[in-house]
Design a protein that fits this description.
Helix 5 packs across helix 8. The protein is α/β, with parallel strands linked by helices. It folds into 2 domains: about 190 residues, Spore Coat Polysaccharide Biosynthesis Protein SpsA, Chain A; about 80 residues, no CATH class. The model has no long low-confidence stretch (mean pLDDT about 90).
Length: about 280
Amino acid sequence: MKIYDCLPYCGEDLLLKIRFETLYQDVDKFVIVEGNKHFNGEKKSQLFNLQKFEKYKDKIKYYFIEDFPIHTGNNYEYEDYQRNQIKRGFDGLDAEDLILLSDVDEIPNLRNKKFLNYDSAVFLQNMYYYKFNIHWSKGLKWDNKWPGTKSCRFKYFETADKIKKFRVKNIPWWRFDRKIKRYVESDGGWHFTFLMSTNDISKKLSRFSHEIDHLLKNKDYDMNNLLDEKKIEKRILDFKDPYDRSHVKLKKVKIDNTFPEYILKNIDKLSDYIA
């Protein structure tokens, strides 16, 4: 049985490095898809450079996507389109092989091998904002974990966006995945989000306005306030949510052996990303 780790990419080199270091021994191939456009339709240049990742290149299948459809104003369509292009790397897969689907910053913990016995799985992950050790300590469901990485047996694969929507429980009767045997891994890894400069955070928020509208639905919010770099910096220093949601509680925690081994071995090198 082969395992393919599949993900969209947009310049997250540090997290990609940690991902390779953490998963290389367990994964047969990394399928990486990058688009020539942001989800809002804005053009972008190619960011992935294989020379930075020579150590892992024997397992990398990389695709630069340039055939996006015309943007309709719905950013989710571009997000789904890019993610769905992981299928370009599926040659040679057999029915029983496993597909892992994540964003780059959602790194699964594969040490517990129980997921290998199931046709699908949801990996519940500890969530961190801005730095490796600023933990989202309150405000999430599922024992305060993020349902990040999902897995699916190739024989059940339809599209990546459907896998991304796998639920932890209470699957409606009409869902295609209702009858697929599923495992929930409670020690499912790490979601390191907004691990970037204030300028890049501002850019990300501006390009993910569709996500902000979804997260803050039925609430009044000031987009200029969310994008202001000085206010972003203050939110980081104060351990505040990037979306200014009052129910989200962030807390500094100690980096210990529950973190990826690469982080533990490179504390000094990664000091800019540790609170």
